[in-house]
Amino acid sequence: MIETDEEALVEQARAGDPKAFGKLVDQYQRVVYNLALRMVNDREEAEDIAQTVFVKVFQNLGSFDSRHRFFSWIYRIALNESLNHRGRRRRHEELDPGLESNGRSPDECAALGEVGTEIGIALMQLTADYRTVVIMRHFLELNQAEMSQILEVPEKTVKSRLHSARRLLGEMLSRKGITQ
């Protein structure tokens, strides 16, 4: 979406236009859901979180500062809601390795699925700060500047967290016999 179009939609939604808000939801629902899913590892809970995020966005649209990117604002709300949810839940589960066929043999898929499961387990053992930067960088493909803006921390902090998180993930996976 072009930023000026987005800005216009935000202003229309702030003025009470439900169609404009619906377009914003359409634009961001996948990003919000995917973030929540990566953070809580449960599809139904991720859907609940996404709904809560959009309710909060709707309720707080008047407080959005249009000098900032709407994407960063909504992403931060989604991140906070996911972290709050995890804090309330306090349990760890394996990530679903996925069921999509990619042309590999069943043995290759099984081995990759096991590796994916181990990566998911290791990811869930990281602190929220470390897990967040790994998800943002490697699953959502955000750059350090975008991550810095969303997390409201300096880029050096993002870089440091990402480095530490990767090192810790590597150590955890190495102990399980998984190497690059």
Note the main attributes of this structure.
180 residues; mainly alpha; Rna Polymerase Sigma Factor, Chain: A; Arc Repressor Mutant, subunit A; 2 domains; 8 helices; elongated
Description:
Helix 2 packs across helix 4 and helix 4 crosses helix 7 (144-151). The termini are far apart. The chain has eight helices and no strands. The protein has 180 residues and is mainly α. The chain has two domains: 1-90, RNA polymerase sigma factor, region 2, helix turn helix motif (Rna Polymerase Sigma Factor, Chain: A, Orthogonal Bundle), CATH 1.10.1740.10; 102-180, Arc Repressor Mutant, subunit A (Orthogonal Bundle), CATH 1.10.10.10. The protein has helices at residues 3-14, 18-40, 43-60, 70-89, 106-125, 128-139, 144-151, 155-175.
Provide the fold topology:
Elements: H1 3-14, H2 18-40, H3 43-60, H4 70-89, H5 106-125, H6 128-139, H7 144-151, H8 155-175
The proportion of residues forming helix, as a percent range, comes to over 70%
Annotated CATH homologous superfamily of the largest domain: RNA polymerase sigma factor, region 2, helix turn helix motif
- Strand element count: 0
Order of helices and strands: HHHHHHHH
Number of helices: 8
Shape: elongated
Query: What radius of gyration results from the CA coordinates?
Result: 18 Å
In the residues, how many domains can be counted? 2
Q: Could you give a short description of this structure?
A:
This protein has 180 residues and is an all-alpha fold. It is built from 8 helices and no strands. Helix content is 74%, strand content 0%.
